[in-house]
Amino acid sequence: MAERGCPLEAVPLPSEVRESLAELELELSEAAIFSVVRTQFKFRSGWGSDCLTNMPRTVLTAHQPSGGDITQKGYEKKRGKLLARYVPLTQGVDPSLQAETRIPGPSQATAPAPKPQKPRPSHTRDERFRSDVHTEAVQAALAKYKERKMPMPSKRRSVLTHTAVEACTPPDLHSAPPDVTTGLAQHQHTYCERPQLASVRGVPQGGSGSVLETAGGVPVSSRVSSKIQQLLNTLKKPKRPPLKEFFVDDLEEVLEVQQPDPNQPKPEGGQMAVLKGELLAVGSTWPPSLLATLRQWGTTQPKAPCLTALDTTGKAVYTLTYGKLWSRSLKLAYTLLNKLTSKNEPLLKPGDRVALVFPNSDPVMFTVAFYGCLLAELVPVPIEVPLTRKDAGSQQVGFLLGSCGVALALTTDACQKGLPKAQTGEVAAFKGWPPLTWLVIDGKHLAKPPKDWHPSAQDAGAGTAYIEYKTSKEGSTVGVAVSHASLLAQCQALTQACGYSEAETLTNVLDFKRDAGLWHGVLTSVMNRMHVVSIPYALMKANPLSWIQKVCAYKARAALVKSRDMHWSLLAQRGQRDVSLSSLRLLVVADGANPWSISSCDAFLNVFQARGLRPEVICPCASSPEALTVAIRRPPDLGGPPPRRAVLSMSCLSHGVIRLDAEEKLSVLTVQDVGQVMPGANVCVVKVEGTPYLCKTDEVGEICVNSSATATAYYGLLGITKNIFETVPVTAGGAPISDRPFTRTGLLGFIGPDNLVFVVGKLDGLMVVGVRRHNADDIVATALAVEPMKFVYRGRIAVFSVTVLHDDRIVLVAEQRPDAAEEDSFQWMSRVLQAIDSIHQVGVYCLALVPANTLPKAPLGGIHVSETKQRFLEGMLHPCNVLMCPHTCVTNLPKPRQKQPEVGPASMIVGNLVAGKRLAQASGRELSHLEDSDQARKLLFLPDVLRWRASTTPEHLLFLLLSAKGTVTSTTTCIQLHRKAERVAAALMEKARLTTGAHVALVYPPGVDLIAAFYGCLYCGCVPVSVRPPHPQNLATTLPTVKMIVEVSKSACVLTTQAITRLLKSKEALATVDVRTWPTILDTDDVPKKRVASIFRPPSPDMLAYLDFSVSTTGILAGVKMSHAAASALCRSIKLQCELYPSRQIAICLDPYCGLGFALWCLCSVYSGHQSVLVPPSELETNVSLWLWAVSQYKARVTFCSYSVMEMCARGLGAQTAVLRMKGVNLSCVRTCMVVAEERPRIALTQSFSKLFRDLGLPARAVSTTFGCRVNVAICLQGTAGPDPTTVYVDMRALRHDRVRLVERGSPHSLPLTESGKILPGVKVVIAHSETRGPLGDSHLGEVWVSSPHSATGYYTVYGEEGLHADHFSARLSFGDTQTVWARTGFLGFLRRTELTDASGERHDALYVVGSLDETLELRGMRYHPVDIETSVIRAHRSIAECAVFTWTNLLVVVVELDGLEQDALDLVALVTNVVLEEHHLVVGVVVIVDPGVIPINSRGEKQRMHLRDGFLADQLDPIYVAYNM
């Protein structure tokens, strides 16, 4: 073991050598400070010239370097000479490294200051992790990296907490495209088309346009895209070698599992033997129990001092004698047992638990309360004083009190006054706490017991003596129960190990309520009649030297400290010449188990050896709540072997193997022993996971103890008690090593030579990344070694791991100084990442900086890590800077899918079977048999139908238009519509002098004028083009779209209203579009009452009737041509599906500008003769209940709406159903309510709408969706007859591979899909492979192709792209039925035959639409639908109002709208990254956080993701924060 694993040495050195070493250390530290500053200055050109002047003044005055600075090489040479005689060379180790790691001196500690140092402020650096050797290692590691330029996150100025750097993007006032955010404040209507971010692309292209240009065709050169380029550059070179092996996580997804490297170090030693401690010297001198001892001292030595309490100035305020302790404890015991009643019953009975709530400044009252409870046979549960109702971990402590059945809390008068109070004046109820009775135990509140009263306490058995609380890694709090027998054995073992004797003085800096502070300072001290001087934490903060001064003043023989206290006193000791530590024989370092405590011990010894401190006095110890004291170093006079230390390879430690570090001098860990096993204890080391096999001698494992002095259980938790307190270690062969159970300590370590125990970490700080283990404390130490430390507070750093994608991911959170510049902090963060990567070979998943004093604090300083982790996971951390590095950390993503280069028809077709499955083909009812063909032949064209209706039923009402108040603003009968249309036709022919076939743009608000203008165009043979009018408050972004449609459609004339004519010619409009470029503008408000000589009748049914223009969600403007035959066929199909007759009334709440919305407004009522109640969606802005009121008022059986209307109603009226019912709204008349959409049905929205308005009588089966697209505006529509829409659940992961796998509801990764309505009469649908064009089988995912008489006849564009036309409108299958001409919808979906039957008695075929092919994201060789990722992201945090995703140069960009405070924005970065990784196995490249309403949404409620992308790349979004994930 000694040769293999640990370079170990004996320590003692003569005093003159130590003095020479101290001088040498000082000389080097002076040089080092300036050299570090100089190297930093060279390393980052970004520093200002004041970098030297910003250093602490004390450092500058104390360390002005002389002309001949000592170099590191010179220092090592001199030091080597000094130590040559005392250092036995270890084989294979550089002597300079040995010397260097042996006694690292503090870089600043030993320098003499010119004047006494002021007391340190409370935010002093936490020096658990200080090591100059480690700092040098980190600097060397960083020097390996060239400066890699990482893109800095962008922040809006209002979010910047520090205004030193302008991190937001300045607006370009000259060349920027129209600002998209202006006018949003007043007009954030969900229903209305959100303003476009840039002008629309004019060409329908196969893809989504040129990616390197904005929509206007301007090459992107914004800061956003340059930062993305930086990000891509940092990601180009893979950090780790690719992994070979995979394990199947599911049938579809294969997550990489990191296989052990065959070359990784493996333990080679023999199996360890159980280590037995010396026997506990049980003799007649030991007292039978602790209480018997207290009684003995209280009666025989009543004047002997027991405990001295100090105030915050260091003055002794009270000394408790043993007599007082005994009498007061008796009084308290008597009061507790006899004076507290509830309903005439004693409140407490023996064995009950009682909470002890005492501040850290009052050890006297705590000690009285503790012994009073023991005398009364009650179980004390010491806890921290709750200062606020939201203390970190307070809820968990409350849970512990509840589970222990605590009903009474003891406290002092002063403490009780400081507790938060309710309005009644009682102590407030804390969140999660049980109801408590508070008892103040100051003398005046206690009753004196009768002289003959004696407590009957039996305190030597297995009963619980006290319960100490412990917070686990996950944040849960458990109570560790210690029995009377264990307590006595612990006191005896400590007395023997530390050589305590009567009347010794002990100074205690630790918390006396728990752990070593309680065991030494309250229990063992009483057993040995010692005098304890208790130093409160507040005094240590004010005067870090106070404990040394008290050792000196009281001539204390023993002191109890943590390494932090030693370091604080180092920083404060300059100029203090009068202190002496010569009286100390024992300096117990309670956190000796922290590997980084060695540097504090060495530095402390270096400085104070000259003040009388003897090296052998320093005694590190290791302890845990479960095993109490595990090991402690004994002074030589008590028979302890010489101290040892080990220089270990961190890389080998991460594999659990102990190796001397010979080559890589950077990543080493120097650890010191924590002494020998406690008397009476047996110790072994077992494997951390799985069966507790004994470790080999050169293997790190968990230390286990078998002793009578360990705790006995986790109170009330039998399951984990068995795992921890009743472990039976076994040999490699599986044989138990002992018949007595061992207790797991939670300490990771090994046994070294001389049977010394070494601890290298704790289970609570263990993070398993891949197959390697890392310790949180080691990561903190590396972060702290990254100079300069001007940006964060040293002692305010938390490191923990979160599980993402089946592996631990390391998160580092630090508090940022308020004066730190944004850019400097970011540079420091990126250097920390590099240092950790270099030294530990592990990536940090997230590094976050939070504002000063915002991390939850532990009771005695330090960070409450589990609470910090909880806040991080809940999005409640509120950081001011975040750096996520998922690209480097997440190495277990599934293997990217490899697509086959040559794809041929994979199916074998036989009859109507493909690969053994029914062909995925379905059709609606036949049209020819369903209507009187004679009538249909006569009325083939819509103008003929309108004339026929005007002559046969002139007064029949066709349209009612409602205003926001619910009043009818206009009605139109058949004859009125006919006459208006004639007037418009006459005006077009006479005023505009248009000829047959000319195109006319109709720019109208939703209303009857639009319908009249449409038929006016048909009457004179013109081709109408319906265009949404520009928004008066947002002309800059909406007017260019109008102009573009007018130009692309080659409109010769614009028909509109007087108001819009004025708007088009206004000054505001002139700034965007020159009025002279418009074609003829005709105002139809007052056209003369003229009739046309003859109404135009098309020579052929295939003649163009109208153009339908629409902007797709991918930002492409596409116009399709609708012939007269197609228009009539469309109306006929809808009439049959919805059973529309002249007696019917339907309500329409849709925009009338394109697609099915236009057809329902302008075509269907004229064709079928039914009455349409028209509700413009814009009117819902002022009266959100208008549509539902209209449906109820007019008893509409059929109603149509859009998703945006449905969402407005669900959000605005969800809580007002009772009010609507009182107003008489009744929806029981509705047979079918159809959502008009060109997307996958939004199940969540339709279901919540159905549930919300069920109370108003809306039938459960009424709500359904329609499906249409550019090539055919109405493919599916539920209608009034036929089976209800069906819902299936598919595996989302199979969809990524273009496969459909049906799963049960609620199964993991299940995605609900609902049928998109019934296929319309006359429509045939087939599912084809989008690449091979072969037909697919039932339940196979492919492109939906449609054949129908009402399909559009082609695209109408300014550039005739014939190839595209042929591809989309006249496609044929590659095999099977190759004769039918199909139109390609561009949507992925599948057909599935259900068990239901339709009206004709056939089994019903359901069409499920999955999503648009143009919208899908091709990532890692798989196909993702944006809506799936967006749904996951919206679920991630309650502040996310909306989300949109797109890709840019293969990076996934996620844009989220923040519905909350701007300072919460950065919380979302990690949550968004986590959820997309977990649910979709994708790494997010950029997270953009914006205001509500920024994501553009069109009138159908669809997100315009490509517009958003263009706006982002052109820097138009004004984001709150942009995070570039590394």
What report would you give on this structure?
The protein is an alpha/beta fold and 1526 residues long. 29% of the residues lie in helices and 21% in strands. It has a 9-stranded mixed β-sheet with strand order 6-5-16-15-17-18-19-20-23, with helices on both faces. A 7-stranded mixed β-sheet has the order 40-39-48-47-49-50-51, sandwiched between helices. It has a 5-stranded mixed β-sheet with strand order 1-64-63-62-61, with helices on both faces. α31 packs across α32 (1155-1168). The longest helix has 29 residues, at 15-43. Mean pLDDT is 81; it is low at 1-11, 29-69, 88-128, 161-221, 237-252 and 902-908.
Write the layout of secondary structure elements.
Elements lengths: L14 H29 L13 H6 L9 H12 L11 H8 L29 H13 L9 E2 L67 H13 L10 E3 L5 E3 L18 E2 L13 H11 L4 E6 L5 E6 H17 L2 E2 L2 E2 L6 E5 L5 H13 L3 E5 L10 H10 L4 E4 L1 H6 L18 E4 L23 E8 L5 E7 H15 L6 E4 L6 H13 L3 E4 L2 H6 L3 H9 L3 E4 L1 H10 L13 E4 L7 H12 L9 E7 L3 E5 L12 E5 H5 L13 E5 L3 E2 L4 E5 L14 E6 L6 E2 L3 H8 L17 E9 L5 E6 L3 E4 L2 E4 H9 L7 E13 L2 E10 L5 H19 L3 E8 L13 H10 L6 E4 L1 H4 L19 E2 L2 E2 L2 E2 L2 E3 L9 H6 L3 H11 L4 E6 L5 E6 H17 L8 E5 L4 H12 L3 E5 L7 H14 L2 E6 L1 H7 L2 H4 L9 E4 L20 E8 L5 E7 H15 L6 E5 L5 H14 L2 E4 ...
Parallel strand pairs: 5-16, 9-10, 9-11, 11-12, 15-16, 15-17, 17-18, 18-19, 32-33, 39-48, 41-42, 41-43, 43-44, 47-48, 47-49, 49-50, 50-51, 62-63
Antiparallel strand pairs: 1-64, 2-3, 4-24, 5-6, 7-8, 13-14, 14-26, 19-20, 20-23, 21-22, 24-25, 25-27, 27-28, 29-30, 31-32, 33-34, 35-36, 36-37, 38-54, 39-40, 45-46, 46-56, 52-53, 54-55, 55-57, 57-58, 59-60, 61-62, 63-64
Helix pairs in contact: 1-3, 3-4, 5-21, 7-8, 8-9, 12-13, 16-17, 25-26, 26-27, 31-32, 34-36, 39-40
